Design the sequence.
């Protein structure tokens, strides 16, 4: 079952800063996530972010939250690894 994807303003802002090739790679990875959401092992974050998960794509990290009842994946934040954990 495919989940729908929603993006936060912060994640959309990241897309506006990167080149088209990287943007397409990220979008393909998110599309893969939406199609395989129920069958993959999600990597949870820790502490106060325990309801959030991360998806790795090289040096890029995609932080997301899953709303199972609504079948929605909410992309909270996307950035390079060295910047994303400083939030």
Sequence:
């Amino acid at each position: 079952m495919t989940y729908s994807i929603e993006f936060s303003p912060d994640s959309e802002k990241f897309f506006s800063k990167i080149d088209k090739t990287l943007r397409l790679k990220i979008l393909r990875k998110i599309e893969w996530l939406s199609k395989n959401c129920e069958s993959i092992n999600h990597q949870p974050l820790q502490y106060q972010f325990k309801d959030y998960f991360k998806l790795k794509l090289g040096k890029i990290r995609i932080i997301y939250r899953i709303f199972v009842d609504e079948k929605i994946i909410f992309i909270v934040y996307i950035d390079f690894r060295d910047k994303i954990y400083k939030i």
User: Anything to note?
Assistant: The chain has a mean pLDDT of 92. The chain has one domain: 4-84.
